Amino acid sequence: MCSINKSFIIRILYVIGSLMFFYACANIAAPTGGLYDVDPPKVVKSTPVFNATNSNRSKIEILFDENVKVEKPMDKVIIAPPQQSFPVIKAQGRKVIVELEDELKPNTTYTIDFTDAIVDNNEGNTLENFALSFSTGEELDSMAISGIVLAAEYLEPAQGIYVGIHSNFNDTAFTNIPFERISRTNSRGTFTIKGVAEGKYKLYALRDLNRSYTYDNPQEEIAFLDSILIPSTVEAFRNDTIFKDSLTIDTIYEVKYTRFLPDNLILRSFESGFKRQYLQKHERMVPHKLDLYFAAPTDEAQLTLLSPKATSDNWFVKESSVTNDTVSIWITDSLIYQSDTIKLKVDYLQTDTLNNHILNTDTLNFTFRESKKRKSEKDKKKEEEAPIKFMNIRHNVQSSHEIYNPLSIEFEQPILNFDSAEIKILHEVDSLFVPIEYNLLSDSLNARFYKMQYKWEPGEKYKLLIDSAVFVSPYGLHNNKIEQVFTVKKLEEYGNLLFAIDGLPEGKVAFVELLDTQDKPFRKKSVRNNEALFMDLKPGKLYARLVIDENEDGEWTTGNYELKRQPEMVYYNPKLYEIRAFTNHEESWDLNEQPAFKQKPLEITKNKPEEKKKQRNRNEEERDRRQSQNRNSQGTSNQSMNRGGMGGMQQPNNRR
Predict the structure, then answer these.
(1) DSSP 3-state assignment of 365?
(2) Is there a cis peptide before residue 474, judged by omega within 30 degrees of 0?
(3) Tens digit of pLDDT for each residue in 352-390?
């Protein structure tokens, strides 16, 4: 009996051991080492202590409860007052050390704003909005000024631009004296100047190209407020929430805090439009054409031919860009362009070291030597058999033509015998093409470019006709025949859009621009009686902006600090509009419904703010993972046991 019991017990133990082994194999899991650290580093102590007074230490040490590192200190750490020599900023284990290179000023509050530069060494948890202040005098200045900087023309967040204050109200303070206190905008364009003393200030923004903290370069992007600021504080309240878990609210309670004012300032940054003027290069790619390239828009350059001598004053045709930064000279005198070297005197404005534009004279040599390789009989025969080379004429005619578009043509080379009668537009009437009269406009800057204006009939068929060899260039080329038929689109293929505008300052001239999905303007209309009407729009998606046209030139105009002129105001419509064919769209637009920093749609904002990565609750994820693993393991174990039981039992025989 004892032997039977002993044998039975051994078998039972064997079965239990096998089941435990099988269960363990079915539950292979990664080893865990406890919950994750999701907390940012905590300050243990600092030298000097926070808000210390009468401190003369130029070496600041901050001790944390874990190893830390400082990310991008030159970009993220802001020190006020601004330092001429950037300090040494480094992490050593649990310490962050800042060594100020500039001599400490007496009775001055110093603020070291780390923003989000400090992270723990292992998990990368960020210590947000961390700053340390101390004073070299008896008092610590604790006021703050906050706001946002937007690029004036396109209302883009001005990222990484300095914002500073002056208590000196002289206009030259901004250009000659470094800021007293500074901050730098983040990816959203927002800023907070900390450690400000009580008093009155003027506020500026500066994209400092040489770290002088002064507006000493007219190419720097700037902004300035016309008003004087007086920092102050008020008591305010906010709601804080305690959660039971990630979804369930436990308690909402009211917290009193000190609000620093002003905290909603808007600065509109701009560049003055100044660019250094100089001659970048000159070239002669073909014998009969000289090209000059200037580095910036400039006044018209004066040209004098030195050699070879011209037989008349009409030896060239000059073309230039709208801003005169590109100039082309077509030489029509064959005795000149057949010369290997052409010498030209050019008088133009050039920027000196003091950023003044002075008259400069250059003597330029344009050399062109064609290869004089001896041609074989075979080469000569190929030349004779080569097709005739025509002078190209570019045009914008397509088979389906937009109803609002004029026709345009551009000749490849200047024309000796231009006759507008040789450019014909015909209208199809009863299957016959009949000539029509149109308005021909020549371009004042490009003598080879012409526009043909006509009020097209929707849905009608037209033809552009230019016979061959009616136009000849000074270089012996003539045109080939152009015969292009096109049909003007029907009105049913277009939509119309009317903006009824509220909030337009009384007496101001304004225009509205339609923008594509890349924020590029493609149509413009003046505002009349607080309305802007766009006819014949192609179906599609678009946005809109309005410009207050102070100088009534039909363009957005930048600011000028010397003249104390702000850039022209721009308003973005925050909506996306989808134009449908054969539909009238009427939309109301309140310019002041939203503040400027909320107007521009994010979809067409190029300087998109860097979204903070959501701090995932990794501990909750770990708990969920373990619970899911346990559930899966339990299910696997039950299935395995069921399979084992069925395998050990004799299946009933249902056959009779």
Answers:
(1) strand
(2) no
(3) 988 889 999 999 999 998 765 555 666 655 555 557 789
Q: What pLDDT was estimated at residue 3?
A: 47
Burial 362-401 (b: 16+ CB within 10 A, else e): eebebebeeeeeeeeeeeeeeeeeeeeeebebeeebeeeb
- What is the rounded CA–CA span in Å between residue 255 and residue 236? 8
pTM for the model stands at 0.81
Question: In this structure, what is the dihedral angle of CA atoms 552, 553, 556, 561, given to the nearest 10 degrees?
Answer: -80
pLDDT tens, 406-460?
Answer: 999 999 999 998 999 999 999 999 999 999 999 999 999 999 999 999 999 999 9
CA distance to 149, 269, 442, per residue, from 518 (Å) = 22, 21, 31
Is 219 in contact with 207 (CB distance < 8 Å)?
A: no
SS3 state of residue 278 = coil
∠ CA 630-635-638, rounded to 5°: 125
E strand spans, 308-457: 316-320, 326-331, 341-351, 357-367, 393-395, 400-401, 407-411, 424-429, 432-435, 439-442, 449-453
Determine phi and psi for 236, rounding to 5 degrees. Answer: -140, 170
CA neighbours closer than 13 Å in the CB half-sphere of residue 323: 11
Burial class (CB in 10 A: 0-12, 13-18, 19+), 643: exposed
121 close to 153: Cβ distance less than 8 angstroms = no
Answer for the pair 62, 132: CB distance below 8 angstroms, yes or no. yes
Tens digits of residue pLDDT in 582-641: 999 999 999 999 999 999 999 999 998 876 544 445 555 555 665 666 656 555 545 544
Grade residue 26 by pLDDT with cuts at 50, 70 and 90: very low
Q: pLDDT tens, 394-410?
A: 999 999 999 999 999 99
Q: Which residue has 């100089």 as its token pair? A: 278
Strands 341-351 and 357-367: antiparallel
Per-residue model confidence as pLDDT tens digits over 235-251: 998 888 887 776 677 78
Instruction: Give the Cα separation of 454 and 149 in Å (integer).
Output: 46
Q: Determine the angle formed by the axes of helices 618-648 and 2-25, rounding to 10 degrees.
A: 140
Distance CA 450, CA 441 (A): 6
pLDDT, tens digit, for every residue of 250-308? 788 888 889 999 999 999 999 998 889 999 999 999 999 999 999 998 889 999 999 99
CA distance 265 to 258: 18
Report the alpha-carbon distance of residue 534 to residue 537 in Å, rounded: 7
Q: Per-residue b/e over 55-64, b at no fewer than 16 CB within 10 Å?
A: beeeebebeb
Contact 596, 265 (CB under 8 A): no
Strand, helix or coil at 81? coil
**Residue 80 neighbours by CB under 8 Å, 6+ apart:** 110, 111, 113, 181, 182, 183, 193, 194, 195
Q: What is the dihedral of CA 14, 20, 25, 29, to 10 degrees?
A: -160
